[in-house]
Amino acid sequence: MMERPTMTHDVAIVGAGPAGLAFAASLTGSRLRVAVIERQPAAVLAAPPVDGREIALTLRSVRALQALGAWDRIPAEGTAPLREARVLNGGSPFALAFGTAASGEEQLGHLVSNHLIRRALFELVDALPGIEILAGRSISSFRNDSGGVTMALDDGTRLESRLLVGADSRFSWVREQLGIGAEVNRLGRSMLVCRVEHDGDHEGIATEWFDHGQTIAMLPLNGRRSSAVLTLTSEDIARLAALEAEALGAELTRRYECRLGRMNIVGKAHVYPLATTYARHFAAPRAALIGDAAVGMHPVTAHGFNLGLASARLLGKLVSDAARQGGDIGASLLLRRYEATHRMASRPIYTATNLIVGLYTAEHPAARAARHAGLRAAARLPFVSRSVSRMLMQP
């Protein structure tokens, strides 16, 4: 029986999601040989299915995609401006608003469908020299030590690299195999996402309404359309997802109290169970974690994708700089620097987001009073609004 060949690369990336592809693209010009290993077939990567998720990209993330060359591959009609964000609490008419006055920018960011971003990044990476996409393949085992990484693929192929990068979701197999633990919080709640048409004008304003027993967000798309994001117990979401489109539209209209008028469902609804994760380490010998494999955020602050892109950008710069200088791209000092920098950027946002979720989903009277008082206090302190606005526009 013939032995399978051994493939040699400088960098092996597990996962062809946005973080993994962005990291691969960031290595352009470094002359490194890169392999991207992904279970999904190439046809799915080239034409990702619509998954209902609309990504709130910060301006920094947009600029990062522009620098990579992916932004121009997203059709202009597929992007919608986000001009302001408002937080609502219960039945109070008061809203805490976050805008662009402190930054001088015209908008906070852009809303873009997840499948369009994925398609643009795949098209970009697939055309780049020095990058091999091993679609429809997976790693069955690997060994990492100070000398490098040796992997066995599911078809028996052997692959060797100087650096292994895990970008394979918040329930990362690579992270588990590296022996890295993680904070995992399964919240027992799910979110239903779908596009809706409505009578009213959203004016480019996103709202996050923490109502009693539910959280509902409306993300402004082009025209009189929004992405509705409803969070309830997993059982309640399953019941609503089973409704016919007309009944679901009526239910969302009622739950949003007709703020945008009557809503009609466009396309199909998608359901996602909610869980947050935070890896106890972002690096191991000759290996690093990026994207959701490092930090899996709650979607309430819309920072998960942006943090994932930031981690890919950071590690990509460190690895590219080392390669150009003739250094070791998998050196422990480089990986420790990546971990420390990304932890400083991600931990405060992750912790603050979890605190917000805990406070604004609690239903006891003390929590209701605290969040109402908190919003009122924040409104009286302009620096709070400016700080949050800056946070929304970064990383």
Task: Please describe what this structure looks like.
The protein has 395 residues and is α/β, with parallel strands linked by helices. It folds into two domains: 6-54 and 114-184 and 277-356, FAD/NAD(P)-binding domain, CATH 3.50.50; 76-109 and 188-275 and 363-392, D-Amino Acid Oxidase, subunit A, domain 2 (D-Amino Acid Oxidase, Chain A, domain 2). 35% of the residues lie in helices and 32% in strands. The protein is built from eleven helices and 21 strands. It has an eight-stranded mixed beta sheet, sandwiched between helices. The protein has a six-stranded mixed beta sheet with strand order 9-3-2-13-20-19. Strands 1-12-11-10 form a four-stranded mixed beta sheet, with no helix packed on it. Helix 1 (18-26) packs parallel to helix 4, helix 1 (18-26) runs parallel beside helix 8 (304-324) and helix 8 packs antiparallel against helix 9 (332-361). The longest helix is centred in the C-terminal third of the chain and has 30 residues, at 332-361. The termini are far apart. Mean pLDDT is 89; it is low at 377-393.
| Alpha-carbon distance between the two ends | 52 Å
- What is the radius of gyration? 22 Å
By DSSP (H or I, 4+ residues per run), the number of helices equals 11
Rounded average pLDDT: 89
Biggest sheet, strands in spatial order?
A: 7-6-15-16-17-14-18-21
Spatial shape: elongated
Strand content: 25-35%
Integer count of domains: 2
What fraction, in percent, of the residue positions are helical? 25-40%
**Architecture per CATH nomenclature, i.e. the level-2 architecture of the largest domain:** 3-Layer(bba) Sandwich
Biggest sheet overview: 8 strands, mixed
